[in-house]
Amino acid sequence: MKKITFLFFLTFFTILYTGCQDNGPDYPSSDNPTVVAATTEIYGAPNKKFEIKAALADDLGLKTVRIQIPELSLDKVITFETDPLLTTYNLSYFFEIPADRGTSEAFKIKLTVTDVSNNSVDQEIKLRLDGEFDAPAVTMITPKEGAVILLSTSNQMPVNFTVNDNSGIDFVELKCDALGINELVQLQGAPQSYTFNKTFTLPVTAANYVLTINTRDKFAIPNSGTLKINVVATNEYPALYLCDQPKGTNLTTDAVGVPMYFHEKVGQDFTFKYYADSDNKEVYFLGQESDFAPHCFGLNSSGKLADDVASSPIVLPTKGYYLIKVNPNTLLYTVTKYTPTSKVWSNIANGLWHDDAALRRPFVSVCGGGIQGANWDTWNAWTQTSLHLANNSNNPYQLVGEYTLTGTMECTFTGQWWDPSWRLIKNGIATMSPGGNGNAKYPAAPGVYKVIVDTELERAFITKK
């Protein structure tokens, strides 16, 4: 009798314990869940992320989805909420392929979807690592971004560019609605390289135009790209730039000041102030900011100013400051050396923060964005000594240093409470504050840059180190 009583209570407590442990709700039987993958074949590449996309559904409710690639050590389970039950879910999961995998490898992605009734279905997706994800590369020969076409000289606009793509080019399209240009070139045989070269006639009215180049490749999942080129058709030059770099230099590598924007313009008379940091400094004058073509003013074989990409540089014989006047229409120029009389900001590197202005010694640092360590607080500019500029021992009108840029930058070079300060506005102009115009934003590739603020020229030069 005691044995029977013991067994009864043992059974009772076992049932009670088991019931207490099963706190989850019971769901009725239901249909199997469904999974519809966005594609049955995904292209990836080593060290690159790819996306797994699928539509999941269940008539009662989804419980989990498991994502597996054993060879890549991927085993991810996503658990869904059950209050309320989720009947549909758009899966979007990103995974980065390890860098040490080979482009010839292929794997199977296994998706296992389970509903709340514990019905499960599997879906396999093929993963290939020989993917190509870049749009066709366009190399613009002419016109370059911001090119100036002088209508008084010619109203012809040559358009010349090359397109390259490893998987082959499907089509190339050139459009400009304002000029009625709509050129579609459908390429046969998927060539890896193509050159477009055609001349268009511009109207005699001065205007700005945008050329749009659209491309697409022949990869299994096509990659498309768009490039826009701004062109200025004008009867006179809106700007000139002084360039002291050798021909062939990429003028878009530096962040600010290369080439240098003019200082004054009256009609077509352009005036520059310029500092030659060495004897026999060679300079040109450019009609556009981003390239030596199409308008490059230098000296011809007779020593006269000429608008010719093949021209020779103008040589400034000795180190120092120069006042240079250039007229691109009359092709006349003058060069005059001068001695600056503006304020010299000396002893900058030994500045001192002090509430009493009489006891303060000026320092110049930087406030802004896109510069490592910088923000818009002048106290931060003081405490971050790596941002401080120093006097150039070779030129008392220049403050120099190095900054690490993290991307698009804007800034003001400043002392305590913005005294003194130079606001960096458009075209590399560093005006002493207070002054008009807001800070300009300059796109820049991340990296270390040399910084020169020339207080006499009121120009900043931020160049890739």
Q: Class by helix and strand content? A: mainly beta
What share of the residues does DSSP label as strand, in percent?
Answer: over 45%
What is the molecular shape? globular
Distance between the termini: 96 Å
What is the CATH T-level topology of the largest domain? Immunoglobulin-like
CATH class designation of the largest domain: Mainly Beta
Number of separate structural domains? 4
Helix content: under 10%
Task: Specify the CATH architecture of the largest domain.
Answer: Sandwich
Kindly state the number of beta strands: 33
Query: Counting H and I runs of at least 4 residues, what is the number of helices?
Result: 2
Low-confidence stretches: 1-22
Largest sheet: 7 strands, antiparallel
- Indicate the radius of gyration in whole angstroms: 33 Å
Average pLDDT number: 92
Description:
By secondary structure, the chain is mainly beta. It has helices spanning 2-21, 378-383, and strands spanning 34-37, 41-43, 49-57, 62-69, 74-79, 88-96, 106-115, 120-128, 137-142, 147-150, 156-164, 169-176, 181-186, 193-201, 207-217, 224-234, 241-243, 260-261, 264-266, 269-276, 281-286, 296-299, 305-307, 314-316, 320-327, 332-338, 365-371, 390-392, 395-416, 419-424, 430-432, 447-454, 459-464. Strands 27, 28, 29, 30, 31, 32 and 33 form a seven-stranded antiparallel sheet that branches. The radius of gyration is 33 Å and the shape is globular.
